[in-house]
Design brief:
Layout: E1 3-9, H1 15-25, E2 29-32, H2 33-41, H3 50-67, E3 71-74, H4 80-89, E4 94-101, H5 104-112, H6 120-129, H7 135-139, E5 145-154, E6 157-165
Parallel strand pairs: 1-3, 1-4, 2-3, 4-5
Antiparallel strand pairs: 5-6
Helix pairs in contact: 2-3, 5-6
């Protein structure tokens, strides 16, 4: 059975860096919603054509699922409901969740180094509605997470804190 690793965390937390590095070191295919937006709109931060972008992204994941291909999915997945969508839409995968946990200062600093920056106010707003993964998320009867891994990113140094659930 193929594996899906779903990244979650704030913008600028280091999810993409971590996911790309993971994909290079393994046989996992890297799939990024930002890359999909860039393909459709010429800009990874332009969220025009949202429906088409997400439908194409879902199709890529589904094709990987049908092919039995291991994937790492790079998106924010900020809420429990967002993360559950991946469980519900792609039941054939073995599901793993990786939470990159970074303080706002690290996220804002990383954002400043991007070619196209997310407005700081928007970044701060995203901090308010992000729902960190908790044990209850894995224990939920609907949940099929095999493992939820908590990784701290302080000044772009990644450290595995623990498994929230496994």
């Amino acid at each position: 059975m193929a594996r899906m690793v779903l990244m979650c965390g704030h913008p600028g937390s280091g999810k993409s860096y971590y996911a790309k590095d993971f994909a290079k070191k393994t046989s996992f295919r890297y799939l990024s919603i930002d890359d999909m937006y860039a393909t459709f709109n010429g800009d990874p931060y332009s969220h025009e054509n949202k429906f088409d972008v997400w439908m194409t992204f879902w199709r890529q994941i589904h094709l990987a699922e049908l092919a039995g291909q291991d994937i790492i999915v790079d998106t924010n997945a900020p809420t429990v409901d967002d993360r559950n969508e991946f469980l519900n839409w792609f039941p054939s995968f073995k599901h793993y969740l990786v939470w990159i946990d970074a303080p706002m200062t690290t996220c804002l600093k990383n954002n400043e180094q991007r070619a196209r920056k997310i407005p700081a106010e928007h970044m701060k707003n995203m901090f308010t509605f992000f729902q960190p993964p908790k044990m209850e998320e894995c224990a939920n009867a609907r949940s099929k997470w095999i493992e939820i891994v908590h990784i701290k990113n302080i000044k772009n140094k990644f450290e595995r804190v623990d498994n929230i659930a496994s």
